[in-house]
Amino acid sequence: MNDETKKPHGVSDTERFPFEAEAAAPKPAGRTLKVRRIGNSLGVVLPKDVLAKLNVGEGDHLSVSDTPDGVALTAFDDEVARQIEIGRDLMKRYRNALRELAK
Q1: What is the pTM of this model?
Q2: DSSP secondary structure string, the chain?
């Protein structure tokens, strides 16, 4: 190796070549699942270890949420859904008061 290609001890590649790190496309984290035809629909089969992490099984419901990186799957929780519905009802009922408080 010549002196230009030799990396100084304690210096990362992003410090030596900051623009190369920005140009690299981010790699998706985790595993890749294949979208398949299931009846007249499309779906994804979740592996057993993913189902265990979500703490769900056959017949359970999943909640899909938008995130800055895409979407997130979580186990559907009836109690959380009830609390969200109560919050929406309160926001609708007290819309004017909340608007004034936000000023």
Answers
A1: 0.48
A2: --TTTSPPTT--HHHH-HHHHHHSPPPPPS----EEEETTEEEEPPPHHHHHHHT--TT--EEEEEETTEEEEEE--HHHHHHHHHHHHHHHHTHHHHHHHT-
Q: Is 101 exposed, middle or buried (0-12, 13-18, 19+ CB in 10 A)?
A: exposed
- Look-up of token digits 């938008």: 66
Contact 43, 34 (CB under 8 A): no
> Between 99 and 28, where is the model more confident?
99
